Amino acid sequence: MSFRTIEWRDNKVVMLDQTKLPGEEVYNEYSDFKSVAEAIRGMVIRGAPAIGVAAAMGIALGAREIIADTHESFFQQLSNICDVMAATRPTAVNLFWAIERMKRVAEANRGRDLNGIREILRLEAIAVEEEDLRICRAIGANGAAVIREGSTVLTHCNAGGLATAGYGTALGVIRAAHDQGKNIRVFADETRPWLQGARLTVWELMKDNIPVTLITDSMAGYFMKKGEISCCVVGADRIAANGDTANKIGTYSVAVLAKENKIPFYVAAPLSTFDLSLESGEAIPIEERHAREVSHLAGFSVAPVGVKVCNPAFDVTPARYITGIITEKGVLSGDFRRRISEVVGK
Ligand code: MRU
Q1: Residue 114 C-alpha to ligand 1 middle, in angstroms?
Q2: pTM, rounded to two decimals
Q3: Does residue 318 surpass a pLDDT of 80?
Q4: How far is CA 291 from CA 24, 77, 295, 310, in A?
Q5: Residue 298's pLDDT is what?
Q6: CA–CA dist 104, 106 (Å, integer)
Q7: Is 237 a known active-site residue?
């Protein structure tokens, strides 16, 4: 990849600032956990797996900031740091998955001295990042098989290298198919209100010379009906035990349109995005973001001042609209509840 989404460097966390793309490629350095939490909340880094990596690195930074004489005090402060991370964004379960993983590894190493625990946490955060990259490549390899030669693939939001440690989930599938020499094209929904499609997906794909066409969200149905879309591939923020999938707002509309037009609709996600504690998508918490993201565009007001605004950042696509869920362990299809419990529930 020609960019690095996030990395641990010289005891700092370095992130590509996604709020500035595509205009500027700026890397921010963070040396304290609170500013990492703020970066997650402020969308400097976003996308479910990338948020998980950032939280793990934020906790590792926080562990270095703790001043404690006793293990009890250290673990109390570590728990407070984890709470700050957990309060950043509510929908992507990878955040909570990463926090739990960091807590578990700290607990398992309670017998070490405090610097030993700090070092274990640093190594674990780096492992979360490195594993995510390997997992995305496996998702890509598994998913490429469902992309036929000559396909036009529609994607929504950004589930690319920017949303992960690199390579991407949905865009990983597209990258892998392209790397296999398949002649494919991408249609990228702009993804109002935050424009992850226009600003980020298009930027990534153009860097890799993968042919991409930008459309507004409301054009997806038009192109599907004209027969110009072969399949849809999107990412996920949380997948319930029955396969219902939360992803960027507008994904549900794409899935319904795909079914109406008999177009396969795939979700690509790592196992860390499944939440088996939730029976169905009904229980997935949906983040409500600031009204300004809807009432303004690139800093300019596009609505009368004072208008009432709703801004749910995600929606839930019922499993019945999903053709297959592409994971690092293969493509799940058919009876999702059974397949998810077999593959993820072990
Ligand atoms: O609000 P965002 O930009 O964090 O939302 C991102 C998405 O909805 C992605 O599709 C999802 O996190 C999967 S990323 C591999």
Answers
A1: 35
A2: 0.97
A3: yes
A4: 25, 34, 6, 7
A5: 86
A6: 5
A7: yes
